[in-house]
Design a protein that fits this description.
The chain has eight helices and nine strands. About 30% of the residues are buried. It has a single domain, classed as PDZ domain (Pdz3 Domain, Roll), CATH 2.30.42. It has about 200 residues and is an alpha+beta fold. The protein is globular and about 50 Å long.
Length: about 200
């Protein structure tokens, strides 16, 4: 498997795992844009206001069976449309380990997600963008609007769960990313092999 596809798979993992831009994991790894005032209260820089959760909006706008994605979902770019979609394959552990060693923070700059809720309950992380403009990533059958729900059968709601899934890939024999596209369940399935 090519180095680009290996990095691609790690990015898919990150997309689901890292959650929203202001997740605790992202803050721990990349820092945040907060500062403390002299009164001891937390202040946000204007450009980095934390997202406000609106469960009512999420419930009203959640796609139901057979319904098209919400208006805010970006259509695929021409770059994304020109590559065949990949949902299975083989990953060399020798190529995967350096990606894992690079850490989650490295990918955060190229992956944007937002938490997805249904009837007030967390269901996963919706992909907003995934390495835009990168042909290797455009071939993956994961696109803006898809919601990553589990990785290797594990929940990814909390930062510590994300970190555990990331570390488990060092010895895992598979990478399975479960996600929803509208009302349909999908999965990316890759076998991780030792070649040495």
């Amino acid at each position: 498997m090519s180095r680009n596809l290996t990095v691609l798979l790690a990015a898919v993992l990150v997309a689901g795992v890292l959650g929203c831009e202001k997740s605790k994991l992202r803050d721990d790894m990349m820092g945040d844009s907060t500062w403390e005032s002299s009164a001891g209260e937390e202040k946000w820089e204007a450009a980095d206001q934390p997202p406000k959760r609106n469960d009512k909006w999420e419930e009203e706008n959640a796609p139901s069976d057979g319904e098209a994605p919400a208006e805010g979902t970006k259509p695929e770019s021409s770059l994304e449309q020109s590559y065949p979609r990949v949902s299975t394959g083989v990953i060399s552990r020798d190529e995967l380990l350096p990606v894992l060693d690079g850490g989650l923070g490295r990918f955060l700059q190229n992956v944007e997600t937002e938490p997805a809720f249904h009837k007030g309950s967390f269901v996963g992380f919706r992909i907003v963008s995934l390495f835009p403009g990168e042909p290797a990533f455009a071939s993956l059958d994961l696109r803006p609007g898809d919601t990553v729900t589990r990785i290797n059968g594990k929940s990814i709601e909390r930062p510590e769960q994300a970190a555990a899934v990331w570390e488990d890939l060092r010895t895992a024999s598979n990478l399975v990313v479960d996600y929803r596209r509208g009302a349909e369940e999908h999965a990316l399935r890759f076998t991780i092999v030792d070649e040495s």
